[in-house]
């Protein structure tokens, strides 16, 4: 195993030997070092230091037959054909395109079978995958390209024009004539058919090498690239091997975006290792999803909380129109799931269990989760700590480490925790301590049975249908408007979306700019999920003496007003 993982596990072993008698088996709390330990099975991590995540996944035994199904076309790929395609594409990328260890490859695509094929191929070469939201505007994608500097991009013909001015070589999903400005160096559908002309000499890839660069929104407004190693991703997959999502014969419906950590890590990696079948929807549409459940006899859905709300609201029509009796479980993540929504869903779908989970991009799926029906009955809890995870609850004001049933900021530690932020040492130091603790920015507590509860967020990200919207990014755009003096953006609660961005705006004297004009002004510059959907005009924005916007004061004001 890598030196970093080895040192971490060695420290854990020493800690457990010296203080195991002080660990409460019920809570997982160790009184000697004020640390919570996972009550789950230990992680089965490999000892080989020269190991890429693709090879680790391919080495896992299972009895699965069909790996992926495209819900739109019905096209399916078996596990044997999947691994042939991965090997062929890796060969083409290496010999024909010149992709080498350490190169960064951008994936810009809606959900498709191509995403796991491309990602596993690229990572087997020791190259790095970075993903972009296909809904993002050209300028938003350009900023990510400027930061990550990819040497190659995989995309679809429909999205290729967004990369026309980037100067990046492109591999297209399928053959099609494109307008000028796009330099195509390969076609994925053809690469998948091409037999390797010679045996590929594999470069040495270490678990410490970077495998993934996912961009995480921040309240500062600038998206940050999260650096995850092969060892981090191996630990993520190993967690599902230790605690499988479901039985191997499960069929999942994937509607969550595969450019996001939830979709990519679970459905392009863990599901492949387990031998599960994943039915992929290119985008979420409620009735398309339910039709896919019926057609493929799906057993498990992976959803963000707003989709659960849509299923509750449309329950009568859904059950009248579709046969969903095969459905047994819902995996929910991306945003907190309220007790009211959980109970409302179970009332409408009494034979379907909900399994809540909590993780961050920076933790590579590690955090907390529900793994049994008994655990899932803990409405309001995020679950027990993931296998291999340690946690601390820290008072954000004093830095004092707290105990059981005490509230503070959640800190996480373990082999899945990312290495830091790409070319951003300051942000890395702010978020990950010198001892490797990830400061989540979430206010939590752990109860008498070791269950994690999310109380509030220190960070001020807005969660729209599971998407993260940084308020500072929208504020910066508003301040560029010639008729605005000051602005602040906060979350507005919404039953279906969870939250959406609302702006408080201070107009310049004599300005008559209206709500619709500002909504349209922002809509032209951002992806649809970032749109401002409500504007209120005020005389001044509340701020600290140092000039920091007091968004919480505006949130309190909103709660007490009649807006």
Automatic annotation (TrEMBL):
Source species: Cardamine amara subsp. amara
Residue ranges constituting the AMP-binding enzyme C-terminal domain according to the UniProt record: 473-548
Key word tRNA-binding present: no
Entry's transmembrane regions: 258-281
Record keyword Ribonucleoprotein present: no
Keywords: ATP-binding, Ligase, Magnesium, Membrane, Nucleotide-binding, Transmembrane, Transmembrane helix
Pfam families attached to this UniProt entry: AMP-binding, AMP-binding_C
Top-level lineage group: Eukaryota
CDD domains from the UniProt entry: 4CL (cd05904)
Coiled-coil regions, chain positions: none
Every AMP-dependent synthetase/ligase domain range: 62-422
Cofactors required: Mg(2+)
Cross-referenced SUPFAM superfamilies: Acetyl-CoA synthetase-like
GO molecular function: ATP binding; ligase activity
InterPro entries hit by this protein: AMP-bd_C (IPR025110), AMP-bd_C_sf (IPR045851), AMP-binding_CS (IPR020845), AMP-dep_synth/lig_dom (IPR000873), ANL_N_sf (IPR042099)
Protein's name in the database: 4-coumarate--CoA ligase-like 8
Protein family membership: Belongs to the ATP-dependent AMP-binding enzyme family.
């Amino acid at each position: 195993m890598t030196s970093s993982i080895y040192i971490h596990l060695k420290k854990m072993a020493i800690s457990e030997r010296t203080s195991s008698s002080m660990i409460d088996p019920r809570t997982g709390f160790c009184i000697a070092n004020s640390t919570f330990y996972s009550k789950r099975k230990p992680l089965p991590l490999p000892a080989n230091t020269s190991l890429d995540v693709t090879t680790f996944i391919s080495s896992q035994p299972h009895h699965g037959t069909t790996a992926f199904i495209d819900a739109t076309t019905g096209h399916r790929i078996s596990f044997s054909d999947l691994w042939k395609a991965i090997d062929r594409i890796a060969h083409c990328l290496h010999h024909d395109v010149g992709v080498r260890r350490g190169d960064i490859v951008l994936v810009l695509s809606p959900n498709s079978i191509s995403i796991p094929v491309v990602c596993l191929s690229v990572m087997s070469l020791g190259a790095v995958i970075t993903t972009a939201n296909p809904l993002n505007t050209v300028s938003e994608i350009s900023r990510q390209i400027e930061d990550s500097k990819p040497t190659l991009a995989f995309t679809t013909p429909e999205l290729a024009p967004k990369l026309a001015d980037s100067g990046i070589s492109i591999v297209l999903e399928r053959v099609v004539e494109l307008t000028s400005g796009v330099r195509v160096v390969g076609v994925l559908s053809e690469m998948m058919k091409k037999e390797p002309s010679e045996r590929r000499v594999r470069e040495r890839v270490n678990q410490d090498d970077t495998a993934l660069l996912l961009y995480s929104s921040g309240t500062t407004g600038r998206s940050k690239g999260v650096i995850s190693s092969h060892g981090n991703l191996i630990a993520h997959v190993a967690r599902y091997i230790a605690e499988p999502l479901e039985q191997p014969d499960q069929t999942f419906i994937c509607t969550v975006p595969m450019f996001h950590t939830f979709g990519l890590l679970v459905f392009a990696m863990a599901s492949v290792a387990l031998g599960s079948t994943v039915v992929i929807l290119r985008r979420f549409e409620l009735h398309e999803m339910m039709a896919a459940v019926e057609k493929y006899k799906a057993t498990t859905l992976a959803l963000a909380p707003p989709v659960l709300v849509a299923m509750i609201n449309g329950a009568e029509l859904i059950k009248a129109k579709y046969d969903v009796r095969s459905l047994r479980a819902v995996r929910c993540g991306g945003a907190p799931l309220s007790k009211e929504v959980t109970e409302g869903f179970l009332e409408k779908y009494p034979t379907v269990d909900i399994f809540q989970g909590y993780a961050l991009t920076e933790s590579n799926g590690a955090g907390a989760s529900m793994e049994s029906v008994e655990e899932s009955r803990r409405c309001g809890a995020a679950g027990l700590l993931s296998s291999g995870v340690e946690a601390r609850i820290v008072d954000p004001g004093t830095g004092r480490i707290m105990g059981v049933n005490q509230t503070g900021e959640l800190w996480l530690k373990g082999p899945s925790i990312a290495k830091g932020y790409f070319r951003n040492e300051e942000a890395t130091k702010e978020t990950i301590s010198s001892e490797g603790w990830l400061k989540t920015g979430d206010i939590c507590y752990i109860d008498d049975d070791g269950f994690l509860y999310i109380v509030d967020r220190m960070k001020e990200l807005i969660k729209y249908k599971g998407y993260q919207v940084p308020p500072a990014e929208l504020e910066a755009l508003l301040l560029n408007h010639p008729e605005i003096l000051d602005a602040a953006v906060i979350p507005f609660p919404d039953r279906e979306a969870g939250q959406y961005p609302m702006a408080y705006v201070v107009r310049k004297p004599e300005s008559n700019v209206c709500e619709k004009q500002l909504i349209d002004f922002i809509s032209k510059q951002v992806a649809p999920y970032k749109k401002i959907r409500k504007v209120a005009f005020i005389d001044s924005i509340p701020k600290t003496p140092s000039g920091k916007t007091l968004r919480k004061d505006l949130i309190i004001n909103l709660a007490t007003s009649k807006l």
